[in-house]
Write a structure and sequence with these properties.
The structure holds 2 protein chains of 2 kinds.
Chain A: E1 7-13, H1 25-40, E2 49-54, H2 65-68, E3 80-83, H3 89-102, E4 108-116, H4 122-125, H5 139-155, H6 161-173, H7 188-193, E5 196-199, E6 201-202, E7 211-219, H8 221-226, E8 232-241, H9 255-268, H10 273-276, E9 279-281, H11 289-296, H12 305-310, H13 327-330, H14 334-350, E10 363-370, E11 375-382
Parallel strand pairs in A: 2-3, 2-4, 9-10
Antiparallel strand pairs in A: 1-7, 1-8, 4-7, 5-6, 8-11, 10-11
Helix pairs in contact in A: 3-14
Chain B: E1 7-18, H1 20-31, E2 35-39, E3 45-46, E4 63-66, E5 69-78, E6 91-98, E7 105-109, E8 122-127, E9 138-143, E10 164-175, H2 178-188, E11 193-197, E12 204-205, E13 221-225, E14 229-237, E15 250-257, E16 264-268, E17 281-285, E18 295-298, H3 306-309
The complex binds zinc ion (ZN).
């Protein structure tokens, strides 16, 4: 028996900001969920199950969100699941929800991811004082910066590529009303002049710390037929994992990322991603990851990704726009960031992305990664149902 | 086999929580000696109140005051109170349905012993003398043999409402690094760096973790590596971390020790930070009494060729 086609018929986000002191965590997730239901013109009674994801527990100290948030998400009397995969969790959560529809376990599923970074300290969560170990010296940026240097050495990319990405994404964010950072006076010169935090990573090339939530309504063909607005159709979705550290690990282009993308392309019948995919929302918490992931995802040959960035191919009006929403560099509620990528990809193929819409986007990839580049989740969504 | 190391690991953090309208009113009410519930769509009064109707999922905010007296609906005796619990002497955990409420609130009951507690007994709130807007503003419950108290008519509007709270969390673990790391740490005390080799893929892991992450096999064969190695990649850290007594800028590097198949992470010293480069040959610098090398410094060898370490970044 073939899989049930899965459609995205509702999308909701909060306006992402540094601190939402006016709402509880329940109030925050509720806001995104209500907006997704309104977009799909559904009520709580139409939802068969809820799948929720969030950042690792120490990041905000909520150990059982599925328990705490069941009534806020209308899940009483329904199945409720929680997904964990570090920073990629928003993507994995959406895929677990999609699989429930594809397997015909449920007809319509609400999926949601969130984080209130203002109520905790992710840096603390990442540097727990483990006995007998030397304290980690550098935090998240320090963990990823040596890999960026390795990419620069391997590819011969000019030093300025990271700043070009940051400038592009922050400019794109100005067209996205939900983005956290709206830096109206940003210039490339300012990005290039921002201080080096973890050389080769500059301050302006790093993501902010945000409070926010994102929700989607996923449904079957019957649900899509009743939808008031054009749905996004799932053409392929996959997850892959690998250890954080192992002999032979390629941090610049992890094997799990390549395998995950290949699986998605196989499901969707994509022979040449550069030709067949119109735009990408990828997880870029430090700007240099744009050229790195362009290679890992097969949009450029090894060592060539930075050329797409430099020549403007990844700009909003380029031939392969990347992070039209402003990306993680402009909005980072960690637990929700992966789902925002997936939701923004869906908005594009629905033609609902507003000012940051890519004209005629028919197939768009959403991408997330997490941990020490060890979890990957991706989906490709299209404006037409699979097989059409 | 030598005894495996273990040590206490305490994780604690003062998480903050924004309250939202309903919890803000409830906790501010406690500060003012008022217990509030919320009325659901079907007319029940839930205490403590919630933001969303558990039956219809609708947002609810019709706050109603209930009485500070009520009935125990069930209980359990706590023989040995722990740190941070409401009372220091043995007490009963009770669910109390306050007069005017349809659901019960969990709290402590001050009673002389389990024989003095029963389901159905009448109790009343004992307020804390100093109240800040927290569940501990109710110090505990105590037996009550008078009439039910009359609730006031608060609807949850207070001057200077509480918007957020600090919710400190603390976890106490006993941490053990396991056999392989215990052996590694033991060797370090003799200033030797000893990894373990996978019996299948023959890769040498430093520090060893007792199993090969690729093959899933236990490792046992010990292999001394280094002490010299090659800087495979690095970053220059310009932000000073709390609790770390290291001057910035400093270089945080991946170092492939000679004979190891995975780079370890350490600080580079003994050279200006802006002269550190990929391929630099380094050796450990030990300080008296420290478990790990303090940092690595350049040797006088020529730089390693990129081809020799490009798989070890
Ligand atoms: Zn092995």
């Amino acid at each position: 028996m073939s899989k049930e086609p899965v459609a995205v018929t509702g999308i909701g986000q909060t306006k992402h900001v540094a601190a939402r002191r006016d709402v509880s965590i329940a109030g925050l997730v509720r806001e995104a969920a209500i907006r997704a239901l309104a977009d799909a013109e559904l009520t709580w009674a139409d939802i068969d199950a809820v799948v929720i994801g969030k950042a690792p527990d120490f990041f905000e100290g909520v150990m059982m969100p599925e328990l705490y948030l069941a009534d806020a998400l209308g899940a009483v009397g329904k199945p409720m699941l929680r997904v964990h995969t570090a920073g990629s969790v928003g993507g994995s959560t959406a895929l677990v929800a999609a699989n429930l529809v594809a397997a015909r376990v449920h007809g319509t599923v609400l999926t949601l991811a969130f984080e209130k970074q203002s109520e905790s300290n992710a840096m603390w969560g990442l540097s727990l004082p483990i006995p007998f170990q030397q304290p980690l010296l550098a935090g998240a940026g320090g963990f990823f910066a040596p890999h960026v240097r390795a990419y620069m050495r391997r590819s011969g990319a000019p030093d300025t590529i990271g700043s070009l990405v940051a400038y592009k994404d922050r400019r794109n964010a100005l067209k996205n009303p939900y983005a956290h950072l709206h830096e109206h006076d940003i210039t490339l010169e300012k990005v290039l002049a921002s201080p080096m935090l973890w050389d080769p990573i500059r301050y302006s090339e790093t993501c902010p710390s945000s409070d926010g939530a994102c929700a989607m309504v996923l449904t079957d063909r019957a649900g899509a037929a009743r939808a008031p607005r054009p749905p996004a159709w799932l053409l392929g979705g996959a997850m892959r994992s690998e250890p954080t550290l192992f002999a032979g690990k390629d941090f610049v282009s992890p094997q799990a990322g390549k395998d995950c993308a290949a699986d998605v392309y196989r499901q969707a019948g994509i022979a040449d991603p550069r030709r067949d995919i119109d735009a990408v929302e990828m997880y870029v918490p430090f700007s240099w990851y744009e050229p790195m992931w362009l290679e890992n995802l097969g949009f450029a040959a090894e060592g060539e990704g930075w050329k797409l960035t430099e020549s403007g191919v990844t700009a909003l009006d380029g031939d392969l726009p990347v992070n039209m929403s402003g990306g993680v560099l402009s909005t980072n509620p960690i637990g929700a960031s992966g789902m925002i990528r997936f939701a923004e990809a869906a908005l594009q193929v629905r033609g609902q992305a507003g000012e940051h819409q890519v004209d005629g986007a028919r197939r768009v990839l959403g991408h997330a990664y997490g941990g020490g580049s060890q979890f990957f989740s991706m989906w490709l969504v299209g404006s037409a149902p699979p097989g059409s | 086999m030598p005894e495996v190391l273990s040590a206490p690991l305490v994780l604690e953090f003062p998480f903050t929580r924004s309250l939202g309208p309903v919890q803000s009113a409830f906790l501010t009410g406690l500060r003012e000696r008022v217990v509030l519930g919320v009325r659901t769509t079907d007319g029940r009064v839930l205490v403590p109140p919630v933001e969303y109707d558990p039956v219809t999922a609708e947002e609810i905010h019709d706050l109603v005051e209930v009485a500070p007296t009520g009935t125990v609906t069930t209980w359990a005796w706590n023989h040995a109170p722990r740190r941070g619990q409401p009372l220091a002497t043995p007490f009963a955990w009770v669910l109390v349905r306050l007069d005017g409420a349809d659901t019960a609130l969990l709290h402590a009951l001050d009673a002389p012993g389990p024989d003095a507690v029963r389901t159905g007994m009448r109790v009343r709130v004992r307020w804390a003398e100093e109240r800040t807007g927290a569940i501990t503003d109710i110090a505990c419950f105590e037996p009550h043999d008078g009439e039910p108290a009359q609730p006031g008519d608060s609807t949850g509007a207070f001057a200077d409402p509480l918007r957020g709270i600090v919710a400190p969390a603390r976890l106490d673990y006993t941490y053990s690094p396991g056999r392989a790391q215990t052996a590694y740490i033991g060797a370090l005390s003799a200033r030797r760096i000893v990894g373990e080799r996978c019996p299948s893929c023959r890769k040498v892991y430093v520090p060893p973790r007792g199993a090969c992450p690729t093959c899933g096999l236990a490792t046992a064969e010990q292999v001394e590596v280094g002490p010299r190695g090659t800087v495979t990649t690095f970053c220059i850290v310009n932000i000073k971390a709390k609790n770390l007594d290291i001057e910035v800028p400093y270089v945080y590097a991946h170092i492939a020790l000679d004979g190891a198949d995975l780079a370890l992470h350490a600080r580079i010293g003994g050279i200006p930070y802006d002269r550190v480069r990929m391929g630099l040959r380094v050796e450990p610098v030990w300080t008296e009494g420290a478990r790990y090398p303090d940092h690595y410094r350049p040797t006088s060898e020529p730089d390693a060729d990129y081809e020799t370490y490009k798989e070890l970044l």
